[in-house]
Amino acid sequence: MSDTNCFSWSEQCEPHKLRTKQLLNEHPEIRQLIGRNPYTFLVIILCVGIQLALSYWLRDKSWWLVVGTAYIIGAFSCHTLFVCIHECAHNLVFKKRYLNTIAAIIANLPMVLPSAVSFQKYHIKHHSFQGVEELDGDMPYHWEARLINNSTIGKALWLLFYPVFQMLRPARLKEISLWDIWTVINMLVEVVFMSALFYLLGIKALVFLLASFFFSVGLHPLGARWVQEHYLTHGEQETKSYYGPLNVVNLNVGYHNEHHDFPSVPWNKLRQLNAIGGTHYSSLHHHTSYTMLLLKFLFDKNLSVFSRMARANRGKAKLEQLEIQEGIYYK
């Protein structure tokens, strides 16, 4: 378990590429799972439709119903849209990159804050440089972890405002240019869409969408996903999967070791990958309940925002080497 006042430190490379090679040597049929799933776009249309329909219905309802619906329904729909944006970032919906970007921008529509394109830019580096603070946008800032101070209230507030912290992290990333024409398009589309929604449906519809977004990645059982993925809840194993019932509604997002091992396998084939992997995955620590994990994170003094594995940046040459290696499982 990591020290609650600093990140744990590893001199080893991230653990996934080695297991990828082992699995491919033992099970070359895994290559048949690599591909795209264009039906994910239908999931995007469905979830955007659900959020807009609920926004219309809630436009003149009581505030408690607006917030309650956001927590019970909107958060799940919004989280699924976030997973779809993640699939688009890995080019797993359509063959053409620009079509994946357009799909991600559409999925971003009911999420209020324009984040789809910037997520695409920094997320892939998270796979190659897991734990490298200069390149991994998933790693917390030191000041962020110190600010929380490992109290239950602090950790609850951190989860509640997690989208804010997440939006600040890309500013420190090296070798990544967050601004281009697609970033501007993402922002303009979102501003126009939200302005139109506010004009037509009013403040309660806007608050419903904003609350859905914050709950979907924040102080909610779904927010435990961020703890599940890379926080050190089981010794020094830095990636954990979740094998619980919410994978059914959230596109197998819990199969995180499987996803990191093979980022070019779409969500609908991750269960099959898990079955082929056998003891490679069943022998790893994992979670089965987001609710229990959320409570553990909030009340366990041995867990804090510092409970992450950090590693050094190996430089530009290492970057190029790793990106070449990614060819064995990125398509």
Shape: globular
Strand content: under 5%
* First-to-last CA distance: 36 Å
Mean pLDDT: 90
Number of domains: 1
* Sheet having the most strands: 2 strands, parallel
Task: Walk me through this protein's architecture.
This protein is mainly α. It has one domain (8-328). The chain has 16 helices and 4 strands. Strands 1-4 form a two-stranded parallel sheet. The protein starts with 7 loop residues before the first strand and ends in a 6-residue tail after the last helix.
Short recap of the structure:
The chain has 331 residues and is mainly alpha-helical.
List keywords for this structure.
disordered C terminus; 2% strand; 331 residues
Secondary-structure map with pairings?
Elements: E1 8-9, H1 16-26, H2 40-57, H3 63-89, H4 97-108, H5 116-128, H6 142-148, H7 152-160, H8 162-168, H9 181-201, H10 203-216, H11 224-230, E2 241-242, H12 256-261, H13 270-277, H14 279-282, E3 286-287, H15 290-299, E4 309-310, H16 316-325
Helix pairs in contact: 2-3, 2-10, 3-4, 3-5, 3-10, 9-10, 11-15
